[in-house]
Write a structure and sequence with these properties.
By secondary structure, this protein is mainly α. Helix content is about 65%, strand content about 10%. One of its GO terms (cellular component) is cytosolic large ribosomal subunit. Belongs to the bacterial ribosomal protein bL17 family.
């Protein structure tokens, strides 16, 4: 069954099936694509032993493998589609990821991660003991007042710097 699903996936580039079959097909198809990326005779014969259809194997080795040559893995994508009428089986679409691998996607993740820590967050001190409830609330109020004073002080410095820049 998996060999037939893999052959259909390689022929049509995308198939609609149940979620369970799609999840079982993913590692099976990715292993066959990895063989196709090797491209030697032994790999071709191993894939042919599984699929059995020479035209599908030829298409896999000549059309699909060159498109996925730069990719190290993750050749397929599973998208959930909802439930099938009749038996209410969860459906999914499994497709080959044929888009070229972009360097921008790799660079975007680290820059987004670096941008997040730059945001200033007010620092709140938590008391070690919770027995004196009044002193804890006083410390919190004092901490909040300090944060507000710092924020207003920084805002005043920025406005004076802007005013001086406009005068110059």
């Amino acid at each position: 069954m998996l060999a037939n699903l893999a052959a259909a996936l390689f022929t049509h580039k995308s198939i609609k099936t149940t979620e369970t079959k799609a999840k079982r097909l993913r590692p099976y198809a990715e292993r066959l694509i990895t063989f196709a990326k090797r491209g030697d005779l032994h790999a071709r014969r191993r894939v042919l032993a599984v699929i059995g259809d020479k035209t599908v194997v030829h298409e896999l080795f000549t059309e699909i493998a060159p498109l996925l040559a730069e990719r190290e893995g993750g050749y397929t994508r599973i998208t959930k589609l909802g439930f099938r009428k009749g038996d209410n089986a969860p459906m999914a679409q499994i497709e080959l990821v044929l888009e070229p691998l972009t360097a921008k996607a790799k660079r975007a993740k680290p820059s987004a991660a670096k941008a997040a820590p730059k945001a200033e967050e007010p620092v709140e001190e938590t008391p070690a003991e919770e027995a004196p409830a009044e002193s804890a609330s006083e410390e919190t109020v004092a901490t909040e007042a300090e944060v507000v004073e710092e924020a207003t002080g920084e805002a005043e410095k920025e406005t004076t710097a802007k005013a001086e820049a406009e005068k110059a």
